[in-house]
Specification:
Structural class: mainly alpha
Order of helices and strands: HHHEEHHHH
Length: 118
């Protein structure tokens, strides 16, 4: 459902709509990105944190001692609970998908990141 251009919906609702792929936000997400930077440069959406300013994102991506990287998502309590609740036949596949999702360049630090980037 598209929002009324004359009103300003709550930022959390708009971000949730972006994640849910609302068509108008997919077509032009940039006003929402600007709003995130202005109103909530560090925004929590469910169990994820979105960092929208360049300086903050650079720090998060370059400071491996402070911020999690790699397959850290597999260590979260919600993820562990979901894996534990899955039927035995699906657990292995779920772990495989989560490891694949966390194996991208933006989830790696140090030598692994440099090797893949090269």
């Amino acid at each position: 459902m598209a929002h009324d251009p004359g009103s300003t919906p709550p930022l959390a609702d708009e971000f949730a709509a972006l994640v849910a792929c609302r068509d108008d936000l997919i077509q032009d997400p940039y006003p929402l990105y600007a709003r995130l930077r202005a109103e909530a440069p560090v925004h929590r959406h469910r169990d994820q944190v979105v960092v929208s300013r360049f300086e903050d994102a650079s720090r998060v991506l370059s400071d491996a001692r402070t911020f999690l990287s790699g397959h850290a998502g597999l260590k979260g309590s919600r993820v562990r609970a979901a894996i534990a609740a899955a039927p035995p036949a699906q657990r292995e596949k779920l772990v495989e998908v989560l490891e694949f999702r966390g194996g991208g360049l933006n989830h790696l630090n140090g030598d692994q990141h440099v090797r893949l980037r090269a």
